[in-house]
Amino acid sequence: MQKKWFLSIIIFLILSPVWAQNSINGQAEPDNNLLQGAEPEIPRQFREIYLGMSLDDLKAALLADNYFNFRGDRDVSFLPARDQSLVETTGSSFIRRAFFQLRDGEVFIMSFSLNTTIVDHYSIFTQFVSRYGQPVYLDPQIAVWETEDTRVAIERPLTVKYIDRAVFSEILDESGVIESNQVRLRQDFINEF
Fold it and tell me: Which of 22, 67, 173, 182 fits a 20 to 30 Å CA distance from 118?
């Protein structure tokens, strides 16, 4: 019981500045979609980069965006897993580094490590709360917003991640099959003795 009480106090202390700041800014009322109980549309896009885009489109978008110092194909790595690749690039000003993981030629994870000397966790968190409502999960290290097809997380110190849940679940399911096969093979080997 004490743990729940303590957690409620922590959540109140974390979120009360959000409510106070909204009142100060003249935004005492949340978004109408949030009031009506409609599930807010969680973003699948940051600027011109979005989940599901192709590698060629991603490269073109990174080259065209001033927030990224993308150097072309030398920032692209091909991973040994099933048709997966990783694009890693540095950013300029607000973004320190960005990572994009692709499977079957499409982006399914976007991760932006932000420059904490220019932008702070509180500002990003309050922006998300004002646009998308309260997170579905919150602890001192991570805040998570989810819909059926998208998961967005803000992690400390300050990383914003976008994940295509369908692709990610498929990968987890496949890894479980591989692991269970390895467990079976191990047991078969042990049974030889």
Answer: 22
Given phi > 0 = left and psi -120 to 50 = alpha, else beta, which region is 164? beta
Query: For 71, what's the count of Cα atoms within 13 Å in the CB-facing half-sphere?
Result: 8
pLDDT, averaged per 10 consecutive residues of the chain (193 residues), comes to 40 40 39 52 89 92 91 71 80 92 90 94 94 93 92 94 86 61 66 70
Half-sphere exposure of 84 (CA within 13 A, CB side): 12
Q: For tokens 């000003």, name the residue.
A: 93
Structure letter (DSSP) for residue 17 = H
User: Taking the CA atoms of the chain, what radius of gyration do you get in angstroms?
Assistant: 20
CB 153 within 8 A of CB 160: yes
pTM of the predicted model as reported, rounded to 2 decimal places: 0.69
- What residue has token string 């743990």? 3
Q: Let me know: does 85 contact 55? Beta carbons within 8 Å.
A: yes
Pairing of strands 142-146, 137-139: antiparallel
SS3 content of the chain, % helix, strand, coil (to 5): 40, 30, 30
| Closest C-alpha among 5, 8, 27 to residue 126 | 27
Q: What are phi and psi of 9, to 5 degrees?
A: -65, -45
